[in-house]
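Listing 4. Sequential folding, example run.
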Amino acid sequence: MERFDAIVLGAGIVGVSAALNLQKRNRTVALIDKRDPGEATSYGNAGVIEREGFYPVVFPRQFGELWKYGRNEETALHYNSRFLPKIVPWLLKLRAASAPRAIDAHAEAMNPILAHAASEHGVLAGKGRAVEFFRGTGWLKGYRSISGFEADTKVHLALAKRFGVRYEILDNHEITDLEPDLAPVFARAVFWPDTVSVASPGGVTKAYARLFEAMGGTFAHGDALSLRRENDLWVVDIDGRSATAPDVVVALGPWAVDLLKPLGYRYPLAVKRGYHLHFKPRGDAVLERPVVDVEHGYVLTPMRQGYRITSGIEFDDRDAPPTPVQIEKILPQVRALFPLGDQIEAEPWMGARPCLPDSMPIVGPAPRHPGLWLDFGHGHLGFTLGPATGRLLAELITREMPFVDPAPFSPTRFR
């Protein structure tokens, strides 16, 4: 057996960041995953560090919206009808968390940690030689109608004003000035200049993992489900041997429930599946920053692999075969917006976002098992918040003063 001060299960951006922050506090750490770092959800996202992510994903409250999504023809949301009975209880919890008071409380809880998200990435990127991936260009959220803009932004922009987060409202001429190769399909857009994006979220995660190993950390392949308690220590099987530690961090994203359910924890975690596909540009067309087509639910963003299109939300069993119908539906809309060239991959990539109904991650100690720590459920903000929640968790484990209030993220809030 090999002894460590802490074991971190999961080598996505959340787990790697937790391992680095523990290592920074002079802990010997083993980082364990079945796959190499940055190969799962941390690979296939829009690569955005959102400053304005204090407005949650909400349940539609108008009958027209419910009817629209219920027909299952929208590009922003798709569901497998056989899966619908399984997701309905979670959707009802999401509806309760979408009330105006709940949205306001969510924003107040999330804003402090979001204010540190970019700087916490910066600390790791500087040491890990990952700065070359980062772009301070902000991102653009476009609306194809004035009514869509007004309906979607009223509360969000009011919160931005309250928290002092910068934004600019652009008309179609100003959008073209900012991104000349976009066709004039948006009636309005909101430009968020303080949001940071990267050219490869998987590349950033791998760079952070290399930093972890260069500083003496141990990465090993292993199955998190081998976790067990022996003589007041946690034990995990790795590469033909065992790792032991008094503290273990569960940073397994959508796979966290597989480990926690046998231990008696029943968290309301849903999985939102999503897809991406890369394209070459046509001619010399260029896009400088990520662009969200809000009404169609996709993001178009420049990546090292090409121009990445990320789809909207799909509700289905986490491990069900891919059904990338949303990508097929949005391609005509994307081509009308930006001159796409040849498709790069043969098939879309699929990933899974771990989402809780209140749109906040779980960060803190498991209530019934000493030394068991939780860091998962980041939803659409996993890449944004990974380094920040990694710092928060490391401070809780080492009993430092937390840099933000951990109470909103407590593992006991769903009792």
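-- end of first protein; second protein begins --
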Amino acid sequence: MIEFIKNLLKQKEGIRLEFKEAKEKLPENLFETICAFLNREGGSIMLGVTDDGTCIGVAPELVGKFSAEISSLSNNKNKLDPPFILFPSIAEIKRTKIIHIQVPASSQVHKCNGVIFDRSADGDFRVTDTAKIAELHNRKKAHFTEGIIYPALAKKDFVKELFPKIRNLIRSNKPNHPWLALDDQQLFVTSGLYKKDYQTNKEGFTLAAALLLGKEETIQNILPHYKIDALVRKQNLERYDDRLIIRTNLIDAYDLLMGFIEKHLPDKFYMEGATRISIREKIFREVVANLIVHREYTNAHSASLIIYTDRIEVLNANNPNGSGPISINNFTPFPKNPTISKFFVQLGRVEELGSGLINVERYLKLYSKNSTPVFIEDYVFKTIIPTEVEGTIHVAIGEADTIGVALDAVLAGGVSGGVSGGISGGVSNDVKNRLMEILGFLLQNNGAKLAEIEKKIKLTHRTAERYIRVLRSLKVIKFVGAAKTGRYIVTKIFMDKVNQKEA
């Protein structure tokens, strides 16, 4: 995200960008600008920056306090009505700390201190004329269909088991999140899933509420065309090798799609600093989340995620904000379903608006060498992720190379100590690479059978047994279970050596 912020600082203030000085206190008009951004196209507010883009910073001792105040006030109906909770991020630029507030466009009309504000290229302005207020409401309703109210929707139409699930997800993401203190109805209102149309006096649960938490029959009654089609087309390109049709709510749909991806795409073990991460998850949590939160659900075009041998293609109906390929350098983050997007942010499944494209491009280079994702904006949004989904599992190690260093130490001790495990003449680079491939596979699939290792690493039975003997003799892996059904796992002894290297 730091690249995104640096790019913003090179730009001039405009309808979607505002710089504000905030050295010792929050600007008095900050929430007027937040309100205006919510009511127009959204955008970024940078605190600690002068009008010409110079970073003067926020007092370091006040950064945390200001961030907490912004989150608290954005969730306070007396300040911002209806509330729209925001979580600012902190960035260090040229040895100064600035606060970045990502404000999405909202599907609702908001007031700050009882006054509606709108945004233009010249700044924020009050909206008091009745006709202008009506125009603002109508524009929101026409563009953001997720806010359509269904008065007949009732609590019985929602999956009650989802409420503890979403609270657990919110708690895991932010233990002190203010939504955790709300009952179910308060949660609906605060999150924008239950609202009142002040023009028609109609109130009730919205389309976003039905999609996020509704029973399958509820969603099908409202949107009979709704489905997500996940396919594997490696062998049978006309039909499919495997298929998953999803018609359930968006909370469960996310988990089902991630499970389908984990089933059919390999992962790569990677160290980011001292932390082990799944590159597959880093890439595809963004891809899946974008499919879900930016889809135009009133369009009958079904969403699809197709896994080919050399790429993954994702298609979903879209309410475009332009046309053609987009990249980090030319895209403008714009939420298609701000209420759904906001809900996923609170669950920890989506980060700041615009982060998805940046994260996919960053981690794809580690997952599939020299690959670049393609994003094409149109009425059907298309994402193409080139990737090597076949072939040998490679172990991608971060700068510390902790796994390799730990294995080197074990190999050196084993050879000098006379432990060979059937490898004569010392351990060559080729042998070490094979051992690393097996170890990498077991780190991702702890508890694999010998046949699974042979198939994945493409080794003959005799060769696989030989390398397994080496790793077992060095106490890197061990066999557990019965002779016919047992599996191989990485030993605690070896992982302790890895952790020592990390430390």
